């Protein structure tokens, strides 16, 4: 993987609009990209040496992500 430091991405639009408090701005992503079809993989299930992917609406994935984050904060 290719990793970029915070200093290298400080001026990127994505850092200003897509994040708040260092976390992705889920509301912004849903409003801008909610109808997009995105590949999603269950990383705990391997298929040979990779992960099977399925297509999902970005809004549906972000709803899943919200629930997952809420459970982590409550636990």
What does this structure look like?
By secondary structure, this protein is of the alpha+beta class. The protein is 45% helix and 19% strand. The chain has helices at 6-9, 13-17, 26-33, 58-74, and strands at residues 19-20, 23-24, 37-41, 53-57. The strands form 2 sheets. Strands 1-2 form a two-stranded antiparallel ribbon. A two-stranded antiparallel ribbon has the order 3-4. A hairpin with a 2-residue loop joins strand 1 and strand 2 (23-24). The mean pLDDT is 82.
| Bulk shape | globular
Low-confidence regions: none
Distance between the termini: 31 Å
The helix tally amounts to 4
Question: What class would the helix/strand composition place it in?
Answer: alpha+beta
Report the average pLDDT across residues.
82
* Topology order in helix (H) and strand (E) letters: HHEEHEEH
The largest sheet, given as strand count, sense and whether it forms a barrel, is:
2 strands, antiparallel
> Portion of residues in helices?
40-55%
Number of DSSP-assigned strands = 4
Strand order of the largest sheet: 1-2
Oligomer designation:
single chain
Q: How much of the residues is beta strand, in percent?
A: 15-25%
